[in-house]
Amino acid sequence: MKDFFRVSTIPLALLAVFILVSGSYGVLSQSTDDTPGESEAVIPFALPKSGPFKPADIKIENNDAIANWFRSAHADAAAEAFRHWDEDEEIRPACAACHSGEGFRAFHGLDGSEPGVIEAPVDIGGVVDCGTCHNAGLAEITEVKFPSGLAHPVQGVEASCMTCHQGRTAGVNVSTAIADMDIDTSNPELRFINPHYATAAATWLGGYGGAGYHYEGRDYSGRFFHARPVSTCNSCHEPHTLEVEFEPCLTCHQADSAQDIRISRQSYSGTGDTSVGIRADIQSNAALLLKTVESYSRDVAGVPIVYDGTRYPYFFTDANGDGVIDESEGNPVAYNGWTPRSLRAAYNWKLVTSDPGNYAHNPHYALELLYDSIEDLSGPLGMDLEALNLLR
């Protein structure tokens, strides 16, 4: 009979495909030339009405989300954030929690391991994958610990955001490093303390999170409570593309972009220009702080400094003050003239500038850290701070 085929001639996996893609069913049996054995089953089958079979014809409900994620920074497998360890052929545990989905799950025990520690290096090649934010185990994570020691309560996907955008150091690390040292004496044992990158969560929690170096006698703005419902990471950022959704901002703000939003009628940078976004004030004061750190390093510490954001540890020695980084055996010389006063100011500068969204995450905290650091350096430099018209 021409409508029947032997069971043994068609793989069962292929049969399953035939059955799924067709609406015309037949019966798969043995030819009438042979007598069916007792162990041979009669299996229904169907061939597609037309071909070839196209996988693209299958509807994938989350296809748009996958496509959006694929073009985001979280999925950029070629980025330095995921390629930095290629030569080592493994990601060390201290870095793996945020630089691979596998490491994140290990850190929180979502893979069945002990939470809070990554026991072994993680293979390279991973990114912030779907399982980083969609793992069912996230519902069991109730708090995330910050470098300052703060245990901040979280719900669901907040655990992903807060774990990896908190930085790796806090003001307490700076305080510990400079304890019992003369504030304006260079100490070659001091090294720059790096708050790391994309420190949005640290900025957002402000003084409550303790990410910055807090000067004695000063109060700092806490967590930035924006008007609800814009109150979480996903309130502003599309969770897959990571792009900022600006349209909701127009409900309360008149601006052409998020960067142009101004939250105050006063100028913090001394320019008096309130027609620009608060971002401009933060950038202006950050530039002034870096310039002041450079002046202090040269005139007070006696060791000129050069900043290069493309190379760790970012601050380098320029002994002859020619603006060129000193080298030793072909390698740049890390800055070795830190004083407690310059180190804490440079740390605050790096913390603020490491969060490009500081103007939205917590502009008050960013401005406070910058102002206090400038004020602290202005004393030994003899700067007239009042003449600058800066506001805290």
Query: Looking across the biggest beta sheet, what order are the strands in?
Result: 1-2
Tell me, briefly, the overall form: globular
Unreliable runs: 1-32
* Strand residues, percent: 5-15%
The average pLDDT value, as a whole number, equals 88
Helix and strand element order: HEEHHHHHEEHHHHHEEEEHHH
Short description:
The chain is mainly alpha-helical. The protein has 14 helices and 8 strands.
What does the model show?
The N and C termini lie far apart (91 Å). The strands form 4 sheets. This protein has a two-stranded antiparallel ribbon. The protein has a two-stranded antiparallel sheet with strand order 3-4. The protein has 14 helices and 8 strands. Helix 9 (200-209) crosses helix 14, helix 11 runs antiparallel to helix 12 and helix 11 runs parallel beside helix 14 (363-381). It is mainly alpha-helical and 392 residues long. It is globular. Helix content is 33%, strand content 6%. Residues 1-32 have low confidence and may be disordered. The longest helix has 22 residues, at 278-299.
Helix-strand blueprint:
Layout: H1 12-21, E1 26-28, E2 43-45, H2 63-70, H3 80-83, H4 93-99, H5 101-107, H6 130-134, E3 143-145, E4 151-153, H7 158-164, H8 171-178, H9 200-209, H10 233-236, H11 278-299, E5 305-307, E6 315-317, E7 327-328, E8 331-332, H12 340-353, H13 358-361, H14 363-381
Antiparallel strand pairs: 1-2, 3-4, 5-6, 7-8
